Amino acid sequence: MASKTFFSKSFLSAYRSLRSNWPLLSLHRSSKDHHHHHLKTHLSNLSGKALVVDVEGGLLRSSSTFPYFMLVALEAGSILRGLLLLLLYPLLCCLTQEFAIKIMALVTFAGIKEEKFRAGRAVLPKFFLEAAGVVLEVLSEANIKMCISRMPTVMVEGFLKEYLEVEIVVARELKVFAGYYTGLMEEEADQYRDGVVLMENMASLHGSILGFGSKSSPHPLLSQCKEVQLVSEAEKRKWHGVLRPNGAAFHNPLVFHDGRMAFLPTPAATLAMFLWLPFALALLLLRCLLFLCLPYSISVPLGAVTGVTNRLLRATPSPRQDGFGGRLYVCNHRTLLDPIYVSGALNRPVVAVTYSVSPVSEALSPIRTARLARDKEEDRRRMEQLLGRGDDLVVCPEGTTCREPYLLRFSPLFAELAEEVVPVALSAGVTMFYGTTASGFKCFDPFYFLANPWPRYEVEFLPAVATGTMVREGRSSCEVANLVQGQIGAALGFQCTALTRKDKYLMLAGNEGVVEQKKKKNLQRSWTSCLMK
Question: Where in the cell is it found (predicted)?
């Protein structure tokens, strides 16, 4: 009995720590904080000056680098690599900062292929931006910016240059052998020597250099600055987050990011995640059985008992009675489960129109799927055939998912198919794992989503749009698609963009997001099977 009580208290303590470290909960506002305004005033007069910022000591609100190495270990490595890093944490606390970083780099990077490493650009920027402090608000005012870091260059350079427009990044280089990282970094003395040369050039071109870092562990390069502003860890904890949904606090807005982790994996939060995994597996199996084996009228209430939150914000439209075929539902794309939730909200079957869904996802789907060929005329024929049969179709014209409050460009084909379409605004929320990926195994997306303690979905049916009438009045299908995109964006409070699937995959995965098509014979067989169901 005592052991059970101890386990319960330990798990509760770790869970509370996890909640306290979730990014969405940590971005509290404290605009009246004295230290925040004093520091911002001191740094505001940067016009014509060169600024040198210590990433861990001055830019981020916490000097701990463990969460970022853990992110790389889990996302670019494996769960076993992350577990090893967590088990080493007590030892890391006993080592010097320099030696601890070397151990973390070795565990995190050893054996990872250099050309396939994209976590520095695809995963870490989101967490760096959420952890950034007051310096981020004034960074753009400096004439030239230089950031120094004890972390490897591949972890910080993409974030600093692409989102903050930092001209010079001085960080630790990782050694590579036969195309694979060895996990060994260059010595701090080498970094110091290179940094001194760069700072001397900066001083000759821009005069005085202002340095900004931490009192507890100031970076050696800050000694080369004419003026240095140091803050304590206590002062940094009082900073508020400066991440803005529209990207106002930094050069490029954060539209795309990848990875499975939805929280910053501090030691306590990571421990809570590993403790949760056995329960997550059992809960995942239970939720899958509920949604696969039971009708929506039963599975939805039972799913709510297991922690799945569903909200229907507007009454569902009734089936068409005018003899013009099925309805066409157009929704934004949050996860692979979008059509299933639309079907559940309607409480009737629909057909999900897909482009590149894995065979595993198709086999496990509780609703019918219709695979398209990425050929406009052929896709039009197939969807018109389904609508003519009276099937209700769900289409996601974005073509890919987006996690942030943005809508990608809507493909205009849907505007040419039916007399009217029903826009559907979807919102999904997770607390531990993202149910989408650009570089991982997509067949696991629904399982990751359902493994969250409290996954959330909101479905809102908007008034029908008479697309057929608009096209006959002279509006182009692109204009109609933009209109529908705008209505969904307004309902969700999302910003509409012209970004596409290709833009997302080029940034996150280094490819155009085109999955190799099956043989035409197999594709035709899959389509024929769908029509015969």
Answer: Membrane
pLDDT of 482 higher than 90: yes
Q: Tell me which DSSP letter residue 193 carries.
A: H
Q: What is the DSSP string of 261-272?
A: B-S---HHHHHH
Nearest to 211 by CA among 162, 142, 156: 142
pLDDT higher than 60, residue 305: yes
- Phi and psi at residue 265, in whole multiples of 5°? -80, 75
320 to 96, 166, 369, 481, 510: CA distances (angstroms)? 70, 56, 21, 22, 44
Q: How far is CA 285 from CA 116, 281, 441, in A?
A: 32, 6, 19
Task: Please give the sequence-ordered ranges of beta strands (E in DSSP) within 247-339, or none if there are none.
Answer: 309-312, 328-331
d(C-alpha 222, C-alpha 206), whole Å:
16
Which is nearest to 314 in space by CA: 291, 346, 350, 351? 346
Range of the domain at 358: 277-314+322-532
Characterize 332-350 residue by residue with b for buried, 16 or more Cβ atoms within 10 angstroms of its Cβ, and e for exposed. bbbbbbbbbbbbbbbeeeb
Give strand ranges (E) for 33-111. 50-54
Token digits of residue 453: 């303690």
User: Is pLDDT above 50 for 290?
Assistant: yes
Q: Binning pLDDT at 50, 70 and 90, where does residue 264 land?
A: very high
Q: Residue ranges of the alpha helices (H) in 186-242?
A: 188-206, 233-237
Written as six digits, the tokens of 263 are 């929280």
Is the CB of residue 255 less than 8 Å from the CB of residue 125? Answer: no
Predicted confidence at residue 375, as pLDDT, reads: 83
What local confidence, expressed as pLDDT, does residue 409 receive?
96
One domain, residues 404 and 519: yes
Q: Would you say 342 and 329 are in contact if contact means Cβ atoms under 8 Å apart?
A: yes
Residue 210 parent element (H or E) = strand 209-214
Looking at the DSSP bridge assignments, the partners of residue 353 are: 370
What's the rounded Cα separation, in Å, for the pair 90 and 454? 30
DSSP state of 56: I
Q: What is the pLDDT confidence band of residue 45, given thresholds at 50, 70 and 90?
A: low
Kindly tell me if the per-residue pLDDT of 274 is higher than 60. yes
| Residue 472 tokens, joined | 């006959």
Q: Is residue 335 part of a domain?
A: yes
Check residue 317 and report its DSSP letter.
P
Residue after which a domain boundary falls, among 235, 254, 269: 235
* Residue 378: CB atoms within 10 Å: 12
Backbone φ and ψ of 309, nearest 5°: -100, 125
Same domain, yes or no: 130 and 204: yes
Helix (H, G, I), strand (E, B) or coil at 388: helix
- Structural domain count of the chain: 2
Residue 370 φ then ψ, to 5°: -125, 115
What is d(CA 422, CA 464) in angstroms, rounded to the nearest whole number? 4
What type of residue is 360?
Answer: V
The number of angstroms, rounded, from the C-alpha of 3 to the middle of its chain's C-alpha atoms is: 38
Cα separation, 338 vs 331, in Å, equals: 8
Helix (H, G, I), strand (E, B) or coil at 37: helix
CA 257, 261, 266, 267 torsion-angle sign = negative
